[in-house]
Amino acid sequence: MKILLIMKVLALAILLACKAPDLTIPGSTTTLSTAPKLIWSDEFTKSGLPDSTKWVYEVGGNGWGNNELEYYTARRPENARIENGKLIIEARKEAYEGKNYTSARLLTKARWEHGRIEALAKLPSGRGTWPAIWMLGEKVATAGWPLGGEIDIMEHVGFDEGVVHGTVHTEAYNHVKGTQKGQQVTIKDATSAFHLYAIEWTADKIDFFVDNQKYYTVEKSVLGSEVAQWPFEQPFYLILNMAVGGNWGGQKGVDETIWPRRMEVDYVRVYQ
């Protein structure tokens, strides 16, 4: 009997060892053979300025290619700070460096190629606000935009409240040509509640999610495999910013009575 019991236990152990675990990236419908690994995060637990080991500022008021109205400042708590466990990016109506508005634009020091990138955020309301959670390829520095590639995980413009956009821009497909590839989803309480905005990015496709519900996919097999069509085989960095006005955010003007306005981010996490 003991020999039989030992044989059964060994057989069960072999069976379990041969069966791949049923593990799924959070919010994904894709089952993986290994667990997703959290490789980078900021939980924004320490009050004060954003963590300088994780974030850098882009500074200036040149319109950023979109005729935006703000001046992005550096290390200025009025525009970017950690408060009550949240990152606050705040746009303010004030004269500063020749502009009438200030805000912040934060970039991650880390770069990633493929993975799940997610941020839990509450968006600002009001005509003229234009918050974004997005990514640029590191080759933008040498190849320029749009050849370097752009992934917009979330964009929202205040004049169209509750409509969230997920988009990619490449040399072949971009908003200047009117050929960008994207989709939109309506979230009625986007400006009053936190929602999880995410992408899952592989060598073959990029899926877009809100609250773990997939609403859009772009595929390499559809767009094409040339760099001008699919520049997503390189490391990208993440950007959090809030613009004022601009070619899109200011299409219906800017309400000058609403400021300040803020985007709040509970956390940012990256899995691979």
TrEMBL record:
UniProt-listed InterPro entries: Beta-glucanase-like, ConA-like_dom_sf, Glycosyl_Hydrlase_16
From the record, give the transmembrane residue ranges. none
Q: Per the record's keyword annotation, is Cytoplasm included, yes or no?
A: no
Which Gene Ontology BP terms does the record give?
A: carbohydrate metabolic process
GO molecular function annotation? hydrolase activity, hydrolyzing O-glycosyl compounds
What family does this belong to? Belongs to the glycosyl hydrolase 16 family.
Report the protein name in the record.
Glycoside hydrolase family 16 protein
This protein's species is Spirosoma foliorum
